[in-house]
């Protein structure tokens, strides 16, 4: 898949600014080497559809959709997946059990969300909250950004229409994958970030919230890859999933109304939070791992169109918009992931 992605995306190299000087042959060789390194040792992800936690009252209904990150490929048990960690955490804060229903699929791309939403609502007609993580395969399989965003927007709107709060973990930074060499690592970073930005705009406009996964796991992955990656050196280990879930949990809880004063919460400028246009806020969030974006409400019943709020519910590991040495190779803004080489196997 790595090699075919590079071959299929070769036509887009001419529009990559400084990257245009990069030899196509170099990228092709790097992709082949990475593909040989990345293994596929897993037969399946754990089945984490189950009841979690305890307490009084009816269970909180959580549905999970998306790709291998949502499915938990690389985790050993149902309690180690993103859904399992979130369900356990929500139960502890809500004082109620959580019924998790997971319809995510390994290898899923955004167009697959149509079927996943249908299956999720057949199983749980009125979920309380839905978590979606999608995007990595859209980048590597050359799905145009507009197509990806359109399917995600439709999925979020349908889930919102069913009464669910929706939280989307945007496309993670594929440049953190250990086997990738330069310049392929830098290029995949830019394509991942571009898709994350488009996803945020689509989700917010459809009434959902996003959390930027970005390179959230980069510091841990670089310092302790043997602990944060699973044995295939691509999917997260249980520790990696716990790290990602820790960034998503505050937003999921806020969406469920488990934080006191959430409805009146405004931006805290001391934390780097702000209100701006959806497009500008989405671009900032794509550069700020862990950042949440949601629409700004004007009063209790009307959303102020075109404005979004960037929130930081977790303490960042570094400056909000840190400089990254991998950003030195610039790309032309607007290049679709489908026009460039990819960097992973199905995930």
Automatic annotation (TrEMBL):
Gene3D superfamilies, per database record: SGNH hydrolase
Pfam families: Lipase_GDSL_2 (PF13472)
Residues covered by the SGNH hydrolase-type esterase domain: 64-243
Region (Disordered): 282-347
Chain intervals with Basic residues compositional bias: 301-315
GO MF term set: phosphatidylcholine lysophospholipase activity
Start-end of Low complexity biased regions: 332-347
InterPro entries assigned to the protein according to its UniProt record, in alphabetical order: Ester_Hydrolysis_Enzymes, SGNH_hydro, SGNH_hydro_sf
The protein, known as: SGNH hydrolase-type esterase domain-containing protein
Organism of derivation: Mobilicoccus pelagius NBRC 104925
């Amino acid at each position: 898949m790595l090699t075919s992605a590079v071959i299929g995306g070769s036509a887009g190299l001419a529009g990559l600014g400084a990257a245009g000087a990069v030899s196509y042959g170099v990228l092709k060789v790097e992709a082949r080497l990475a593909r040989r390194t990345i293994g596929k040792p897993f037969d399946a992800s754990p089945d984490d559809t189950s009841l979690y936690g305890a307490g009084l009252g009816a269970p909180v209904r959580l549905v999970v959709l998306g790709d291998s990150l949502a499915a938990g490929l690389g985790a050993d048990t149902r309690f180690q997946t993103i859904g399992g960690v979130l369900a356990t955490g929500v139960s502890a804060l809500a004082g109620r059990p959580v019924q998790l229903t997971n319809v995510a699929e390994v290898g899923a791309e955004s167009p697959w969300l149509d079927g996943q939403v249908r299956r999720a609502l057949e199983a749980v007609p009125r979920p309380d909250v839905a978590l979606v993580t999608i995007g990595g395969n859209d980048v590597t399989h050359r799905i145009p950004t507009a197509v990806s965003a359109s399917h995600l927007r439709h999925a979020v709107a349908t889930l919102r229409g069913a009464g669910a709060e929706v939280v989307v973990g945007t496309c993670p930074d594929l440049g953190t994958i250990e086997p990738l060499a330069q310049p392929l690592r830098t290029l995949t970073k830019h394509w991942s970030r571009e898709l994350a930005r488009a996803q945020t705009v689509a989700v917010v406009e459809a009434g959902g919230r996003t959390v930027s996964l970005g390179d959230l796991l980069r510091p841990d992955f670089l310092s302790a890859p043997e602990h944060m990656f699973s044995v295939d050196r691509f999917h997260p280990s249980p520790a990696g999933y716990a790290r990602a879930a820790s960034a998503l949990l505050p937003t999921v809880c806020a969406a469920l109304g488990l934080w006191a004063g959430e409805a009146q919460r405004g931006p805290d400028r001391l934390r780097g939070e702000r209100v701006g246009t959806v497009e500008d806020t989405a671009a900032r969030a794509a550069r700020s791992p862990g950042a949440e974006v949601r629409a700004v409400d004007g009063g209790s019943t009307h959303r102020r169109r075109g404005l979004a709020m960037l929130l930081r519910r977790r303490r960042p590991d570094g400056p909000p918009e840190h400089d990254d040495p991998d950003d030195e190779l610039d790309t032309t803004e607007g290049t679709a992931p489908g026009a460039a080489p990819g960097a992973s196997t199905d995930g």
